[in-house]
Amino acid sequence: MIHEKETKKKDAKHEIGEAVKEKEILVQDYLDKLKRVQADFENYVKQTEKQKQEFIKYANKDLIIKLLGITDNLKHALNTINKTKTEDETVKGMMLIFNQLQKILDEEGLKPIESVGKKYDPYFHEIIKQVETNEENKEDGTILEEIQTGYFLHDIVLRPSKVIVSTGGKKNE
Asked: What is the largest CA-CA distance in the chain?
C-alpha cells in the first residue's frame, strides 16, 4: 500500500512536472509572439510618423508649383523693366512683392537648381534647344543658358530647369 502511494505521488509529480513544462513552453511561445507583435507595432508607429513627416514636408507642393508661374512672370516683368532702367514707385513695389514671395518660398524649402555652366543632367534639366558652339572651354552638353529656372523642394526636383545646351566644341579625349 505504501509502495502504491509513493508510485501515485511520483506519477502525480511527473504529470505535474510535464504540465508545468507544457505551460512554460506555451508561456514562452506567447511571450515570443507578444514581443514580435510589440516590435511590429513599434515599427508601424515609426513608419506612420515618417509618412506623416513626409506628408507635412511636401504638403504645399501643389500650391508652390502654382506660385512658380507667378514668380516667373514677376521675374520676367522685373527683368524687362530693369532693361529700361525705370526707377518709379511701381517698380519698387513690384520688387518688394517679388522679394516677399521669394522669401516665403525659400522658407517652405524651395531652392533653385543651378544650371548655367554645368553639365546637362536629365534628372535636373530639360533641353529646349541645342546650339553648336566652337568655344574652347565649352564641352558637349554644357548648359549655355537657362530659359526657365528649375527648383528643388527640399530634396526632390519640383520642376526641372529648361535650358539651352551646347553641342560640339571641345571634346574629351
From this structure: 123
